């Protein structure tokens, strides 16, 4: 009995530093965000309780646009990441010479500090002298230089592509690990029965990596929804707000114009969306795991 | 490590061509910016700002790698800052996370699941969402414009995934080992220090590497918002200030980026085996 109790006390002693740290640096600010969102906090010394004003202020046409834009941006970014990631994992999972090297070569975008990868893309998107515009012109696909970051429609896709580029290594390696965890005997059995390569992929690989795909999409959805560096460095939310996502909008309001209260209200909305994603995720995964009887 | 049946892995010639073509397309997308960035760093500025676009540099030279030290005066300092910040952050994360992971991996106590869930929920919020209260907190603690302003929030957001990874790793260590030590009269603390830590070392290494990389990547937003002194600026922010100027000296910026990321690249080449297993350990086996 007392041994048991000792163990529990010891466990809590081990946990305490990490718990306290996260409580002060994450949990407290989270609570503070909610409180701030009902005040007119700014650079001024005094702060007043303003009730729902910040929330009613942000619900207008521009903000609705920001929300919709954020969802479209996130949706395309995550989908393209998943498609390229599964494609890359399938290729790297083939037993061809050199695959160990190819796997290493997949990692740089993830390993390099994000900002530096983004600088490179910034130059590639340059209108007059950049690589992408230059290549497109050379192959005769466009007549005049395209300044990708200067027009809303192209800037939107340019930021998505850069986000995909940064996220792809992680998705690929994760999906590759999922594929390698599939028991070989399944393939061998199917192969003995005369199943072709595509059939085996469609009937064995794909169904068995679905749980990992859901997990990865979810993680990537959360990361993408929170994505700040890419848009901030490439366009700062411009031109004329056409790449402003919720995070960028929050940053501009809170840090750019020092309206902490209004910024906090925006941050609260982001938290709500993130929580909804998480709940959906747990629903889906618990259904999946209860589906297969162990 | 069992020998796969070779016949099943035998590809027809067109399949091999298809696979290599697929890998080529995939790696082109992944690596193109690096190739282009490197070529840009070799080109003289006059050639960069000339139409039509040329991919291959003419009279390319490593001139930019010399001149950048003069044009970006704080460059060496930025690299040092990045490493310094990431090293301290990694050390603090390990000190907090190793005991916590052991507690989660081994002990059954009320609320363990809930607490683990709470830790994982932290992963949901990036620093960007909590920037406003964090800014106020840093100001109250008097940490604005110091190294701590970048390190303190950095640690918090790296703890959850580190716990998750290390807990999974520690759960694979056979329980009999701690039980044997315990029966021999070893205290809990002694067991952790003398039995578990040495065995968990490879797992701790993986966590250290991924935390270091994570810290290197996330410095940008905290440094941008909580620090305005260039002597504490890490590499990404130092270069960003440079990048934001009217006339960007692209060849030097790229050269500086490459010098800045070289250490990380060397790390990948030596530790890639650990990295792949580390990234996926917590994930696939659940």
From TrEMBL, chain A:
Annotated coiled-coil positions are none
Q: Which Pfam families match?
A: BPD_transp_1
The family database entries (Gene3D superfamilies) matched by this protein are listed as: MetI-like
Where does this one sit in the cell?
Cell membrane
Task: Show where the ABC transmembrane type-1 domain sits.
Answer: 67-281
**Keywords on record:** Cell membrane, Membrane, Transmembrane, Transmembrane helix, Transport
Concerning PROSITE patterns, the annotation shows: ABC_TM1 (PS50928)
InterPro entries for this protein: MetI-like (IPR000515), MetI-like_sf (IPR035906)
Q: Membrane topology for this entry?
A: Multi-pass membrane protein
GO term, biological process aspect, one: transmembrane transport
Tell me where it mainly resides: membrane
Give yes or no: UniProt keyword Oxidoreductase.
no
One Gene Ontology term, aspect cellular component? plasma membrane
Q: Where are the transmembrane segments?
A: 7-31, 71-92, 104-125, 155-177, 208-234, 264-284
Asked if Transmembrane helix is a keyword of the record, the answer is yes
Please report which protein family the annotation says this sequence is part of. Answer: Belongs to the binding-protein-dependent transport system permease family.
Name of the protein described by the UniProt record = ABC transporter permease
Q: Which organism is it from?
A: Rhizobium altiplani
């Amino acid at each position: 009995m007392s041994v048991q109790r000792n163990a529990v006390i010891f466990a809590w002693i081990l946990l305490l530093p990490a718990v306290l740290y996260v409580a002060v640096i994450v949990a407290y600010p989270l609570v503070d965000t909610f409180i701030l969102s009902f005040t007119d906090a700014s650079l001024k010394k005094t702060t007043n309780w303003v009730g729902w004003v910040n929330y009613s202020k942000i619900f207008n046409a521009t903000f609705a646009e920001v929300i919709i834009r954020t969802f479209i941006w996130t949706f395309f970014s995550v989908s393209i990441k998943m498609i390229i990631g599964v494609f890359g994992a399938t290729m790297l999972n083939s037993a061809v010479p050199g695959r160990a090297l190819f796997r290493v070569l997949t990692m740089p975008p993830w390993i390099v500090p994000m900002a530096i990868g983004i600088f490179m893309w910034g130059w590639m998107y340059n209108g007059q002298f950049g690589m992408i515009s230059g290549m497109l012109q050379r192959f005769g696909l466009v007549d005049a230089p395209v300044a990708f970051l200067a027009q809303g429609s192209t800037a939107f896709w340019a930021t998505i592509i850069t986000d995909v580029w940064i996220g792809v290594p992680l998705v690929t390696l994760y999906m590759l690990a999922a594929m390698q965890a599939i028991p070989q005997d399944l393939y061998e059995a199917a192969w003995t029965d005369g199943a072709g390569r595509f059939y085996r992929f469609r009937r064995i690989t794909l169904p068995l990596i679905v749980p990992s795909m859901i997990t990865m999409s979810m993680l990537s959805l959360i990361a993408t929804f929170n994505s700040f560096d890419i848009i901030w460095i490439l366009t700062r939310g411009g031109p004329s707000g056409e790449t402003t996502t919720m995070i960028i909008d929050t940053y501009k309001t809170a840090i750019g114009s020092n309206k902490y209260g209004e910024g906090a209200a925006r941050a609260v909305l982001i938290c709500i969306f993130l929580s909804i994603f998480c709940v959906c995720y747990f629903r889906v995964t618990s259904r999946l795991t209860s589906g297969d009887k162990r | 490590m069992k020998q796969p049946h070779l016949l099943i892995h035998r590809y027809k010639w067109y399949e091999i061509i298809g696979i290599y073509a697929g890998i080529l397309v995939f790696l082109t997308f992944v690596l193109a910016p690096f190739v282009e960035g490197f070529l840009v760093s070799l080109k003289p500025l006059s050639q960069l700002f000339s139409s039509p676009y040329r991919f291959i540099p003419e009279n390319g030279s490593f001139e930019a790698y010399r001149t950048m030290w003069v044009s970006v005066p704080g460059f060496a300092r930025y690299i040092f800052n990045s490493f310094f910040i990431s090293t301290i952050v990694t050390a603090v994360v390990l000190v907090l996370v190793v005991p916590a992971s052991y507690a989660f991996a081994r002990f059954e106590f009320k609320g363990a699941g809930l607490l683990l869930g709470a830790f994982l929920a932290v992963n949901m919020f990036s620093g960007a969402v909590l920037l406003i209260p964090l800014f106020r907190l840093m100001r109250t603690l008097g940490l604005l414009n110091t190294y701590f302003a970048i390190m303190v929030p950095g640690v918090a957001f790296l703890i959850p995934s580190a716990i998750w990874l290390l807990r999974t790793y520690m759960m694979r260590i056979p329980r009999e080992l701690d039980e044997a030590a315990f029966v021999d009269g070893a205290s809990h603390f002694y067991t952790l220090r003398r039995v578990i830590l040495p065995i968990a070392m490879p797992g701790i290494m993986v966590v250290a590497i991924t935390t270091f990389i994570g810290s290197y990547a996330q410095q940008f937003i905290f440094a941008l918002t909580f620090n305005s002194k260039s002597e504490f600026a890490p590499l990404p922010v130092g270069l960003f200030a440079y990048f934001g100027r009217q006339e960007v000296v692209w060849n030097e910026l790229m050269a500086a980026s490459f010098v800045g990321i070289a250490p990380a690249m060397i790390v990948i080449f030596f530790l890639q085996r650990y990295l792949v297993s580390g990234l996926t350990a917590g994930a696939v086996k659940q």
